[in-house]
Specification:
By secondary structure, the protein is an alpha+beta fold. About 15% of the residues lie in helices and about 20% in strands. The chain folds into two domains: about 10-80, no CATH class; about 85-130, Dockerin domain (Type 1 dockerin domain). The chain contains two helices and six strands; from the N terminus they run ββββββαα. A four-stranded antiparallel sheet has the order 2-1-3-5, with no helix packed on it. The chain has a two-stranded antiparallel sheet with strand order 4-6. β1 and β2 form a beta hairpin.
């Protein structure tokens, strides 16, 4: 996650299927085991998504027939961009307004993008630096 040194608690979901979810560890790594070869009766295609509050989510489509069911499938590195405070999958004026209205606050706050318990110039910089970005900006998945 942009602006943070610790990369834990990014929620990773994989569907269709039930129970195909996990969270990242401190290094941003995750593992989902025992993924069925078929997503549904007529498809081997899955969607996988990484999300964390305050960040743009990333999504990829994964077709297991193309990847020939490896024991371990490695994804390219992903950097979640900070600044989506209101969770609408875009960094825009509404996110900037939230950080601006909370500027100077201490403690847990939605405007504290980098989780340092202060809404300050670093948070404002993350939002303004990613202004105009959307979740559709990402290409993510196996190399």
């Amino acid at each position: 996650m942009q602006g943070r040194t610790e990369q834990s608690d990014i929620q990773v979901l994989m569907w269709p299927g039930s129970g195909l979810q996990t969270n990242t560890d401190n290094g941003g790594y995750f593992s989902i085991s025992q993924v069925p070869a078929f997503a549904s009766e007529d498809s081997t295609e899955y969607t996988i998504q990484a999300t964390r509050a305050g960040y743009l989510s990333a999504r990829a489509t994964l077709d297991l027939t193309i990847n020939l069911l490896p024991d371990l499938l490695t994804f390219t590195g992903l950097r979640l961009l900070g600044g989506d405070i209101n969770g609408d999958n875009q960094v825009n004026i509404f996110d900037l307004a939230i950080v601006g209205s909370q500027y100077g606050n201490t403690g847990p706050s939605p405007g504290d993008v980098n989780a340092d318990n202060r809404v300050n110039i670093q948070d404002l910089s993350l939002v303004s630096g990613n202004f105009g970005q959307t979740s559709n900006s990402y290409t993510w998945g196996p190399p």
